[in-house]
Structures are given as structure tokens and as C-alpha cells.
Design brief:
By secondary structure, the chain is of the alpha+beta class. It has helices at about 5-15, 25-30, 85-90, 130-145, 150-169; strands at about 45, 60-65, 70-75, 95, 110. The chain is about 30% helix and about 10% strand. It has a three-stranded antiparallel β-sheet, with no helix packed on it. The protein has a two-stranded antiparallel sheet with strand order 4-5. The structure holds iron/sulfur cluster (SF4) (2 copies).
Length: about 170
């Protein structure tokens, strides 16, 4: 499958499911949408996703990420569901490649994103505390993403990026 198709289908699967069956942003003041203390923040786009940000919605910016080289989307701290990137649709979960090599036999595991630990109150209770529909949607989206070779390479890079982040924590 082409990366562009995989990202569109995954975004559609996660268009309406949310981590809880109510607005979890009320628990934390939408902590994951706030910039960090340096006024920075942003989400890495999946392969092919940049085509969905042309033209960019007002208040968004797009530039190569200094650490990973992937495209980093920044937002104004509020967005419509249609302009929400796939990384935000997955959060606080993330698909992690479980195979050492991103070939076509690669599989993934769904995990709590380590970046959720400092910000997300749902992080402590783990996947058991999340809406079953949300977890199912993330699993299905992960399967679709893993059908693209380009996206598997991206997921391998992302796993390494998170390993370094965990070590930094
Ligand atoms: S930080 Fe966690 S609880 Fe808060 S809005 Fe984001 S996903 Fe929901
Ligand atoms: S794009 Fe939307 S969901 Fe993602 S961090 Fe920005 S405001 Fe929050």
C-alpha cells in the first residue's frame, strides 16, 4: 500500500473515536495541545500526510524537524477534527514496530506513548483505562500503516526517537 493511502485510511479510522467516551481535554485543560515552556511543540507527520496540509490551515506551520528530519507540524493549540494530524489522533497511544527490520513481515505493538507521561493524566492507568473503541481503532489504524513500506521505515525511526526520549527522561 502507498503511504499516502495508508495515512488517509488511518486518519479516517481515528476521525471520531477519542481516548475516553467523554472529552478528556476537560480533565487536563487539553494539556497535550499546549506548547512547552519554550513555546515549542508539534507533531511529526506520517509519510504522505503533508499532502493533506497544502494549503496549511491558518495558524499551522510545517518544517523539517531538527532531531528526526521528518516534517514537524505545529498548530495554534486549537484545531478542527479534519485538520488534526494522525499523531494527535493516536495520542496517548502510539504504534511501535515490534520487528527489528521494517520489511513486509514487520508487526507492531500498540503502546502508551512515553511522551504522554509528563502531560497526560490517562498515562498512569494504561490502555485498560481507555475507551475500547479508541483502542480498537488504533489497532486497525496501526495494521493499515504497517502495510506501507515507507511508513514502516518511519515507524522504525520513530521507535528509535522515542527510545532516546525515554533515556533522556
Ligand atoms: S493530555 Fe491526555 S487526557 Fe489530556 S487531552 Fe490529551 S489525551 Fe486527553
Ligand atoms: S493539532 Fe489539534 S489536537 Fe493536535 S496538538 Fe494541535 S490543537 Fe491539539
Amino acid at each position: 500500500m502507498e503511504a499516502a493511502e495508508a495515512v488517509v485510511r488511518s486518519r479516517e479510522l481515528l476521525a471520531w473515536v477519542t481516548p475516553l467516551n467523554r472529552d478528556c481535554g476537560r480533565l487536563c485543560g487539553a494539556a497535550c495541545c499546549q506548547p512547552d515552556e519554550d513555546g515549542k511543540g508539534g507533531m511529526l507527520l506520517f509519510p504522505g500526510e503533508n499532502a493533506l496540509y497544502d494549503p496549511l490551515p491558518p495558524g499551522f506551520t510545517l518544517a523539517p524537524d531538527r532531531l528526526t528530519g521528518a516534517l514537524l507540524l505545529t498548530c495554534p493549540g486549537m484545531c478542527s477534527r479534519g485538520s488534526r494530524p494522525l499523531a494527535c489522533r493516536f495520542f496517548p497511544l502510539i504504534p511501535l514496530l515490534s520487528s527489528p527490520v521494517p520489511d513486509d513481515s514487520a508487526r507492531f505493538t500498540l503502546a502508551m506513548d512515553v511522551r504522554a507521561r509528563p502531560v497526560c493524566p490517562l498515562s498512569a492507568s494504561g490502555m485498560a483505562g481507555l475507551s475500547a473503541d479508541f483502542v480498537t481503532g488504533c489497532r486497525e489504524a496501526g495494521k493499515i500503516l504497517c502495510a506501507s513500506q515507507e511508513t514502516r521505515v518511519f515507524l522504525a525511526m520513530l521507535k528509535e526517537h522515542l527510545r532516546k526520549y525515554r533515556a533522556f527522561l
